[in-house]
Specification:
- The complex is a heterodimer of chains A (about 230) and B (about 90).
- Residues about 75-80 of chain A have low confidence and may be disordered.
- The N and C termini of chain A lie far apart (about 65 Å).
- Chain A has helices at about 15-45, 45-60, 65-70, 75-110, 115-145, 155-160, 160-195, 205-230.
- With about 230 residues, chain A is mostly helical.
- Chain A has eight helices and no strands.
- Chain B is mainly α.
- Chain B is flat and about 50 Å long.
- The chains are: A mainly alpha (about 230), B mainly alpha (about 90).
- The interface of A and B includes residues 13, 21 and 28 of A.
């Protein structure tokens, strides 16, 4: 009982970094398992995956662009729509890559003591993350409209087993990834709050660094999701 | 005491890495538009690996951290590759 613990003195940058990395390893293996399932099912159902990836292109894209296209040229629509999902996927890739750069730069700004620039870069990251989620909302919404969602009657009656597997994996993997984006955004906002109240600063940057590491993990996963679901067919 | 070895990465390094990542993205979109069959999948995955290497090394500071974290990351990726190889041995020779 005689021991007095000084919480404010306990700061272990190396320790918190290792802790974050160990957590990231579990995340990598979680998604790794899903990638393994994807590759095995793709190997077992090559034709269905080929077909489903093309359907994904057909139904994908931002709802607004989709409606304008359809209204303007109903005949050419099917052709144009094929390019659409890749385009939205590519836009989301660019958004995530830029946001990864801004959160990485925010650590540099904090270490240099440029608090305003740090906060600005963090806000930029959060805004880009939200734009990513909005795009995802429209992408999913459009598929729901076409009866493509887990357990839908339309899928059970018109699609083959392999195609249902493809869409199941698509929803689980992009959904889990979107959940990670959401968690990453909360982490960055917590770090933002701690920087404004002065408990995270140039000499104690661990929280911001770890939030950054988490955000890069999300980027890392998307780097593999994008070609597997949007590019390859 | 920790701060002495804390490396501050300049802004322009991150900018160059972003440009490299965007280039890889556009190249992978371009090559998947051409029908090359199996080569398309391989090409896209190779480019994704290059991108993830850049993100891990520069954005995630592995280059500036002590080497043991790099070794741990490499170990996790090797473990994942081993699991994939073993699983496919099962499916290929069943």
């Amino acid at each position: 009982m005689s021991q007095v613990i000084h919480h404010e003195d306990h700061y272990d940058a190396e320790g918190s970094k290792i802790g974050m990395w160990l957590f990231i390893f579990t995340e990598l293996l979680l998604f790794g398992g899903l990638f393994l399932i994807y590759s095995v099912y793709r190997y077992k159902n090559p034709d269905a995956f080929h077909l489903a990836a093309q359907e994904l292109e057909l139904f994908g894209g931002l709802f607004l662009i989709y409606s304008v296209y359809r209204y303007k040229n109903p005949d050419a629509f099917h052709l144009a729509a094929q390019e659409l999902d890749t385009t939205i996927g590519a836009i989301n890739t660019v958004i995530l890559l830029i946001s990864s750069m801004t959160i990485a730069m925010s650590t540099t700004a904090l270490q240099k003591g440029q608090k305003k620039i740090t906060l600005l870069l963090m806000v930029t990251t959060v805004v880009l993350g939200i734009v990513f989620l909005v795009n995802k909302y429209f992408e999913w919404g459009l598929k729901f409209e076409h009866g493509i969602f887990p357990g839908s009657e339309h899928m059970k009656t018109t699609l083959s087993q392999g195609e249902i597997l493809f869409f199941g994996l698509y929803f689980v993997m992009t959904g889990l990834h979107a959940l990670h984006i959401l968690i990453g955004l909360v982490l960055i906002l917590v770090a933002y709050y701690r920087i404004t109240n002065g408990t995270v600063h140039a000499n104690r940057p661990s929280l911001l660094e770890n939030a950054g590491l988490y955000w890069h993990l999300v980027d890392l996963i998307w780097i593999f999701l994008f070609p597997l679901f949007y590019l390859i067919h | 005491m920790e701060n002495a070895k804390h490396h501050i990465v300049p802004y322009r390094t991150y900018l160059f890495i972003l440009i490299a990542l965007l280039l890889c993205t556009f190249i992978s979109i371009a090559i998947t538009n051409i029908e090359l069959g199996e080569l398309t999948v391989t090409g896209a995955l190779v480019l994704a690996s290059v991108k993830s290497f850049l993100v891990l090394t520069y954005f995630m500071h592995l280059k500036y951290d002590r080497p043991y974290i790099r070794i741990m990351v490499a170990f996790v990726f090797l473990l994942f590759i081993a699991v994939i190889v073993i699983t496919f041995f099962d499916y290929l020779f069943r």
